[in-house]
From TrEMBL:
Family: Belongs to the SURF1 family.
Location of the protein in the cell: Cell membrane; Membrane
Species annotation: Ruegeria marisflavi
Main location, first listed in the record: membrane
Keyword Aminoacyl-tRNA synthetase: no
Membrane topology: Multi-pass membrane protein
Keywords: Cell membrane, Membrane, Transmembrane, Transmembrane helix
Protein name in the entry: SURF1-like protein
């Protein structure tokens, strides 16, 4: 009888823990979906002038419009686009009408267009401020000789091109041969549903195993 009672208590306690973890992940899922909806709404909002002193925490995803000209320099970030293949993001200096030098992510080009000259005349660029978090301990250092970067490091790129550490990701074409890669919330992880399913599945397995052990214990006691 004591063994059966121990298994029952142990099984109920474990089930409670697993169900609470699954329920917590469901709450986290609702929170994350609300956050992503807020980010998407911010990204698609009406554009405004570039802030005088943009702050990464406060102004991330802020939609802006700037007018000026592109500097002929540019940096190439190695990327791969789904259904297209490998190529480069074009990061170029943009001199605004107010004389500020900022970075603009113009978008994607195929690898064979690396040496093609881009349109640099006066224009308006609409897009979103962003400070991508793409650097980790495994990211290779840029190959400056071949002008190949492996992540968008805003601070390092600003130093290389002599601009403010401010990046605008264009949402519209700035050159006929460059396809925009607008910022969106698709790259923000949202795995809470999978986690919830995992915890609830474990709770189901735990319940089945508890019932099995209880049945075997009772059978041995009767035997």
């Amino acid at each position: 009888m004591g063994r059966v009672l121990f298994l029952l208590i142990f099984g109920v306690a474990g089930l409670g823990i697993l169900l609470s973890l699954g329920t917590w992940q469901v709450r986290r899922l609702a929170w994350k979906e609300g956050l992503l909806a807020e980010i998407d709404s911010r990204i698609a909002g009406a554009t405004m002038p570039l802030p005088a002193l943009p702050e990464p925490d406060q102004d991330k995803y802020l939609p802006v419009a700037v007018t000026g000209v592109f500097d002929p320099q540019e940096l190439h970030v190695l990327v791969s686009v789904k259904m297209v293949g490998p190529g480069y993001r074009i990061i170029a200096p943009f001199v605004t009408d107010e004389g500020r030098r900022i970075l603009v992510d113009r978008g994607f080009i195929p690898t064979e267009d690396k040496q093609t000259a881009r349109v640099a005349g006066p224009m308006e660029v609409t897009g979103n401020l962003h400070w991508p978090d793409e650097i980790d301990s495994y990211t290779p250092v840029p190959d400056l000789k071949s002008n190949i970067w492996f992540a968008r490091d805003v601070d390092a790129m600003a130093v290389e091109l002599g601009t403010e550490p401010v990046l605008v990701i264009a949402r519209e074409r700035t050159d006929p041969g460059v396809a925009p890669l607008p910022v969106d919330s698709a790259g923000i992880p949202n795995d809470h549903l999978q986690y919830a399913i995992t915890w609830f599945a474990l709770a189901l397995v735990w319940t089945a195993m508890t019932i099995l052990f209880l049945w075997r214990s009772r059978a041995r006691t009767k035997g």
